[in-house]
Write a structure and sequence with these properties.
The protein is mainly alpha-helical and about 110 residues long. It has one domain: Rossmann fold. The protein contains 5 helices and 2 strands, in the order ααβααβα. The chain has a two-stranded parallel ribbon with strand order 1-2. The longest helix has 23 residues.
Length: about 110
């Protein structure tokens, strides 16, 4: 994904996408999950440990990242938004449902169906 560098670090999505495409030689994931959660709630859930350099950033950085991921998901059907405010069990079930669906599609493709 290009959001942290493209939006968070203000390098621009097109530039980061070009670099990523070169580095990954066009390889892309079959499915990506965004576990979406309000920034404040996410901060409340974060263990009271020493924060890493990204977690320490103040201001609108984290909200900008969240919005960037949500915008990206609207453009790419392989990006699935999962409501992370749901229970851990429900989040796991949602991820598993989409993962198994993707595996079934790939299996059919491999079997020529």
């Amino acid at each position: 994904m290009y959001v942290y560098q493209g939006i968070g670090r203000k390098l621009g999505i097109p530039v980061v996408k070009i670099i990523n495409d070169i580095a990954c030689k066009g390889l892309e994931p079959d499915i990506t999950f965004i576990l979406d959660l309000d920034v404040k709630k996410g901060e409340e859930r974060t263990p009271k440990k020493k924060k890493d350099r990204i977690e320490q950033i103040k201001g609108s950085f984290h909200e900008d990242i969240r919005k960037g991921y949500l915008r990206l998901a609207k453009k790419d059907p392989k990006i699935i938004i999962v409501d992370a405010e749901e229970s851990e069990k429900k989040v796991c079930e949602e991820v598993l449902k989409y993962t198994l669906g993707t595996i079934k599609q790939k299996r059919r493709k491999c079997n020529g169906k």
